[in-house]
Amino acid sequence: MTLLSRRALLRGQIKQKVHTLPPGLIRPLAEICEQCRACVDHCPTSIISMQSGIPTLDFSFDGCNFCGRCREICPHADVFFDDDLAFSHKAQVQSHCLALNSVECQLCRDHCPTDAIRFRPRAGGPWHPSVVEDSCTGCGLCIGHCPTNAISISVRSGSHVDAQP
Fold it and tell me: 4Fe-4S ferredoxin-type domain: which residues (predicted)?
């Protein structure tokens, strides 16, 4: 079943799903994951799903709150996870962002828990967004709230585990 936001339903849009790996991974899941689905069943925000036998995160409707439940419940947590629950990716604003196209919108900023998305004043038009990489946790809350799917994820420089498309 595909869930639609009210805005998407009224506009006839279905959001594109953005998939990535759970936070804090130090090794690819395909090497060890037993597909037990414990992380899927215990995620309080229900953003973990199985894709081709690998647990992935879907930020279409919610974000990661870094509760650590996926790490606690995983039988291989000592192999998969680092001490720090962090993502190897960050948010990135795409060119089809409403604010970049002269339409006032700051929904991504309004839903960012770390204020990593900031808007710069611009003469004669809406303010332009920018992502402060050091502040962005990669939680994905901004992604599901963007009405035009203009926020994607990109791999942080120096990251040791790549995000999945």
Answer: 24-52, 53-84, 127-156
pTM of this structure: 0.74
Kindly report the backbone phi and psi dihedral angles of residue 40, in degrees, each rounded to the nearest multiple of 5, phi listed first: -65, -45
Question: What is the per-residue pLDDT across 21-72, written as a single tens digit (0 to 9) for each?
Answer: 677 766 666 677 888 899 999 999 999 988 888 888 888 889 999 998 888 8
Q: ∠ CA(22), CA(26), CA(32), 5° rounding?
A: 80
Residue 141, number of CB atoms within 10 A of its CB: 22
Contacts of 82 (CB under 8 A, 6+ apart): 24, 25, 26
Residues 147 and 132 in one domain: yes
| Residue ranges making up the domain that contains 49 | 7-86
* Residue whose C-alpha is closest to residue 140's, from 68, 61, 70: 61
